[in-house]
Amino acid sequence: MQLATAPAETAYESFAPFYDRFIAGSDYEAWADSVEPLIRAHAPGNRLLDLACGTGKSTAPFARRGYEVTGCDVSAAMIDRARRRVPDGRFVRGDLRDLGRLGEFDALTCFGDSLNYLTSEEDLAAAFRSASRNIVPGGVLVFDLNTLAAYRT
């Protein structure tokens, strides 16, 4: 599949030095608090893949809670920052629409409305296929999305 990654990759390479200030109001600890019971109840283990991890702010709370974390992002500059934030984590560069097998994960997360950046049903389906290649049977995928109603109000 030929993917148009250049615009997103270019944008986030430039945005990486400012990204943490931009998302300063996002409470990733609270997000982890809200989804961890779901993960603990349904995931068969503690291996977690954080898709579109950015600078690792969404990955770090799970690392602190004892998960074996891997983060993935399209931007090398974002991955560099994530590695500094979560030194015990594993971080890989990749487009969530076209990931190979990164490992076997019990839980996958994708926060920050990252799936909203996919502008076609085909891209969204490709992202879910990528996720399915990396999740163990019985694993759990937790993500957030904004709806049209959220944007309109």
Which terms would index this structure?
single chain; 153 residues; alpha/beta; 6 helices
Please indicate the percent range of residues in DSSP E strands (runs of 2 or more): 15-25%
| Major pleated sheet | 5 strands, parallel
Assign an overall shape.
globular
Which structural class do the helices and strands define? Answer: alpha/beta
Would you report the number of β strands? Answer: 5
Our count of helices gives 6
Residue-averaged pLDDT: 87
Quaternary: single chain
Residue windows where pLDDT falls under 50 for at least 5 positions:
none
- N-to-C CA distance: 36 Å
Order of helices and strands: HHEHEHEEHEH
Major sheet strand order: 3-2-1-4-5
Radius of gyration: 15 Å
Helix content: 40-55%
Explained architecture:
- With 153 residues, the chain is an alpha/beta fold.
- Helices cover 43% and strands 20% of the residues.
- It contains 6 helices and 5 strands; from the N terminus they run H-H-E-H-E-H-E-E-H-E-H.
- The protein has a 5-stranded parallel β-sheet.
- Strand 1, helix 3 and strand 2 form a beta-alpha-beta unit.
- The longest helix has 17 residues.
- The termini are far apart.
- The mean pLDDT is 87.
What order do the helices and strands come in, and which of them pair?
Blueprint (H helix, E strand, L loop, with lengths): L5 H17 L5 H15 L4 E5 L8 H5 L3 E6 L2 H10 L4 E4 L11 E6 L10 H14 E9 L4 H5 L1
Parallel strand pairs: 1-2, 1-4, 2-3, 4-5
Helix pairs in contact: 1-4
